[in-house]
Amino acid sequence: MRPELPQASPELLDKKVSSGQKVKRLRTYWPVLALLILVLPLFSWLNHRLITTFDYPNSDYTFFYAAGKNLLHGNNPYISSNTESILVEVGMARRDLLTGGYAYPLYTGYIFIPQAIFSLDWALTIWTVFNEMCLVVTIWLLLQVALKGLEGLERKQVEHYLVLATMVLYVPGRHFLKTLLDGQISIANLLLTTLFIYGLTFKRYGLAGIGLLAAVFKPTPYVLFLPVALLVLLPRERRRGLYFFVAGAVLLVASAFVINPAWPWQWLGSRTELGWKIMLRNCTIWGLTGHWGESTGQVALFIGIAAVLALSLVGAMWLAWLKIPAMRSNPLLFWGLLATLSYYAFIYAFSYEAVVLLIPLLGLLVEIRRCRPVLRWSILAGLALLMLILPWATNGAKPPDDEQVIAAYTLGILVFTWLVLLLISNQAHRTKNLQV
Length: 436
Fold this sequence. Notes:
20 helices; 0% strand
């Protein structure tokens, strides 16, 4: 009688298949990595040529560069004379009337210390290439979240649709290009926010905790986002993310105290009187109504209106989560809209924070893909109008009016997204009732 051969357990077979898939993926990624290494120098040179055609010494990046250079030489970036000497050295003509020194927490300057070794033009080139790579990684992570559960041909079709829509609606948009060319840190923060959503979706809670450090690097746009995220990470199975966040935050803050024990007060004190009043002119619901208040002389009245509107938007977000199933099932919609509302409903944010609109945009694109063609194209046309056409059509507005323009479009995008989701939800409900 022939002896029976031992059979491999299903778990072992799954592990073998999984390891085989990983090897296959590595073989796919190696040529891409090799091509990236070869192309990166040429890409950097092209970026340098592009940057030097603009008035780059007068970009926002120069302030970050000055902070990195001050820290590199052991100087205090919050002392205005230290910053001023570097700005003069690199040929910056404009002056920031809103601050008397570095306008960010001290530890954000760590990022710019390595760049301060280079001349301003090449430092900005390095930072621009880094931001462009951040965008690529951000889109890839968001696609993994959006495509979760899809396989085969359907996955490829949805992926191509999402990438094409992003390239058309978002990348040429004023929100992204203005932030990129100004050298702001909002794109890097967008990556961290996306990392939080990705880690939460795929139960990699350590990554989620690291992503949440975006709220430490730039606290003001996360006043709503951070408390909700911390509550989500509170259960035992997710607490690893909470530990990672706390450890990272403590490390950053403590290291800043070692360098300069007075940094929090110097940071808050770096705002000039005009800098604190700018809430009446920035890219938030407060700035939108405050600008009208200034022009009519009824500032107190319009600030009261702004407070009511901000609370109404928060209430609308809560109702949308309760009433619209997609707000609970689609993490890109919930966290993306919460991140947008978090900066928009707070009193202090500028138009470059609008780069976070990429997250709810992809979430909405996922939801409308099954709509009837006429409805889907109508929604896409509305998105193109709000995110692409109108912002560029009003590009001639001068500060601070340009901030209110973006504030108006952000409000439009929030309301438009909620209305579209409500429409889709009602249609799905009617179809279900007809089937019954």
